[in-house]
Design a protein that fits this description.
Its main location: membrane. By secondary structure, this protein is mainly α. Helices cover 84% and strands 0% of the residues. It is built from 15 helices and no strands. The chain is globular, with a radius of gyration of 22 Å.
């Protein structure tokens, strides 16, 4: 269904200038970075308790990262759907997407909390191996999982607010919750004498507070808070495709680390350093993708395919430009940056092998992440799912296991990542140039 001409003329999406893209992307970047920065603070605080508590937080955090992953998928799915309604001039319907996403968040959050409480000990034992570490991790996890409903509520809140092009309120909510947690963590761990449990309580406090603040913002927007199963089902279908796509990424990067480990300690150390830098760049570039989701969804909701194409061009240029800046910085720091992580010369030597891949792939990755955001905003998630799975099954995974079989070392692994990235780049560029993603109206 296309909106009337009047809705198109007065649609709030018609401000997709470079300034508007930056205005959406920069607050989103701070929100994206807040959680990793807090994890670093938490790790530093717990690290002074000794190696066992530190290992326990690492293991428990790995399990909790699944909740963060679900939350990211929920936020991305909600943004595009809310943005279409917002672009059509129907803010109430955009907020309604947030209401249904919040019900979904509460249901999934409660389920994750129950599963975490029941499965804390076997999960920790499976990952840890060492009984002392497993026991400590299980204790931390039993407390930390209580924050899952708040974590997912915050994700749903982020989703609909980005859809209505409001990235400032999420910025203050997320910053406030994480600053509180960063203050609480050392206080509860040391002066209060709670040790490792204090870290988990600080996590739960921040996640619950953040979820409640997003919920309060939703209630201020609307009183229509009843669940609507038909909308929830459509959100679940969209989330399913994003989940499959995300699982393909997980399989690729876990396999790459497993193969790197078979080439020796220095190789896996270098791979870990460069891969984390790759993820950091992806995190930053994802802010541009979030702006794309909001602006493209709004343009298509308003029935304006020309504007959607223009937004796609602008955000793709912005993503590529940002990635080139990253690549230049990475090239300049090739002899310095690995030393920030380790003094081991053997690791530095292995990092030097894959550094050219890292630098060369960044500009392509910037365009890929931006076009991901364009197609997520357009609701073209089924195509993204299929492209990612095929690129993994026919490119990355065969290449890295071939690298292991032929003893090609880290260069073979990163050649696989290059193949994966280029396959996605080619597929996304073809889709972007086609009319298939330009479906207008408030639903896809």
């Amino acid at each position: 269904m296309s909106p009337p001409d009047d809705a198109r003329r007065h649609s709030p999406h018609r401000t997709a200038s470079a300034r508007r893209i930056a205005g959406l992307a920069l607050p989103a970047l701070v929100v994206l970075a807040a959680e990793p920065v807090y994890v670093l603070v938490d790790t530093a605080v717990v690290g002074h308790l000794g190696p066992v508590p530190l290992a326990a937080v690492a293991i428990g955090g790995t399990v909790m990262s699944m909740g963060v992953w679900f939350g990211t998928l929920m936020a991305y799915g909600t943004t595009g759907r809310a943005a279409r309604h917002f672009g059509a001039g129907d803010r109430a319907a955009a907020v309604a997407e947030g209401v249904q996403a919040s019900w979904l968040a509460l249901a999934f959050g409660a389920l994750l909390a129950i599963l975490g409480l029941v499965g804390a000990e076997p999960l920790a034992a499976l990952i840890a191996g060492d009984p002392e570490t497993a026991a400590a991790a299980a204790g931390w996890l039993r407390i930390a999982v209580l924050g899952a409903p708040g974590l997912l509520l915050a994700a749903a809140g982020n989703g609909w607010m980005r859809g209505v092009q409001d990235t400032r309120r999420p910025l203050w909510i997320v910053l406030g919750a994480n600053v509180l947690s960063a203050v609480l963590c050392p206080v509860l761990v040391y002066p209060a004498g709670l040790g490792l449990a204090g870290s988990a309580i600080a996590n739960v406090t921040a996640q619950t507070l953040g979820g409640l603040l997003f919920l309060a913002a939703l209630i201020r927007e609307t009183r229509a808070l009843r669940p609507v199963p038909s909308i929830i089902v459509r959100q679940v279908v969209l989330g399913r495709d994003l989940l499959i796509r995300g699982a393909a990424f997980q399989a690729c990067f876990l396999s790459a680390t497993a193969v790197a480990a078979r080439f020796g300690v220095a190789a896996v150390g270098a791979h870990q350093i460069v891969l984390q830098l790759w993820f950091f760049a992806a995190l930053t570039l994802d802010a541009v993708a979030i702006a794309a989701q909001s602006l493209v969804g709004a343009a298509l909701g308003a029935g304006d395919t020309d504007e959607a194409r223009d937004v796609a061009r602008r955000v793709t240029f912005a993503g590529g430009l940002a990635a080139v800046a990253f690549a230049l910085a990475a090239a300049a720091g090739s002899s310095v940056v690995p030393g920030w992580f380790t003094p081991d010369e053997s690791v530095h030597a292995q990092a030097a092998i894959i550094w050219p891949y890292f630098v060369a792939l960044l500009p392509l990755a910037g365009i890929v992440y931006a076009l991901d955001g364009v197609l997520i905003g357009a609701g073209d998630v089924a195509f993204l799912r299929t492209l990612t799975v095929l690129s993994a099954l026919l490119g990355f995974l065969p290449a890295i296991w071939l690298a292991y079989a032929l003893n090609l070392g880290l260069g073979g692994i990163w050649a696989g990542l290059a193949l994966f990235t280029f396959a996605r780049f080619t597929g996304l560029l073809w889709r972007w140039r086609s009319p298939h993603w330009l479906i207008t109206g408030t639903t896809r």
